[in-house]
Amino acid sequence: MSDSTPSETTKPSETTTLSTYQTPVREDWIDYNGHLSEAYYVLVFGFATDTAMDVLGLGADYRETTGCSLYTVEAHVRYLQEVDGDARLSVRTLLVGDAEKKLHLAHEMYVGDDLVATEEILGIHVDQGDGRATVLPEATRASAAEHRVEPPAWVGRSVRV
User: Using only C-alpha atoms, what is the Rg of the chain?
Assistant: First the structure.
């Protein structure tokens, strides 16, 4: 089931990782095949995005104060290995691109040292009052520039037969 290459099986170093989110697999996340259901991979990646937002200064206080937030407008998930119900998930997030109003995040989900899934997202900074994209705060842009790393080989792939 895995299409990962050797270059994809190495965890990012702590110095390149923007943030890490960890969680055990919950019993209600298990599907009829006895594995983590595909929707819950995305749920866990969403929590990892929230953690990355906190690191970048876009956390709950920021959202409440400014009325702005990061909206995911595009995502690409790769399911590389099945995940059992007793697993503990660790998602490392890399910041692989940024622009005035956008962030490009790459999530790598691990069980132990095994890469089990990836997701890349394009997030747009949105003013929720008017529903329009708006410039990221200067502090966030500076933090993004500081944390930006070269994308792993899997980033930017498309679905192909």
Answer: 16
User: Per mean pLDDT, which range of 6-10, 30-34, 146-150, 153-157 is the poorest?
Assistant: 6-10
pTM of the model: 0.90
Rounded CA gap, 129 and 45, in Å? 26
85 exposure class (CB count in 10 Å sphere: 0-12, 13-18, 19+): middle
| Cα→Cα distances 54→43, 92, 133, 140, 143, Å | 17, 14, 19, 10, 11
Task: Tokens 């970048």: give the residue.
Answer: 56
Cite the DSSP H helix spans in the chain: 38-55, 60-66, 138-147
Q: What's the gap between Cα 132 and its chain centre?
A: 23
Q: What letters, b where the CB count within 10 A reaches 16 and e where it falls short, cover 6-25? A: eebeeebeeeebbbbbebeb
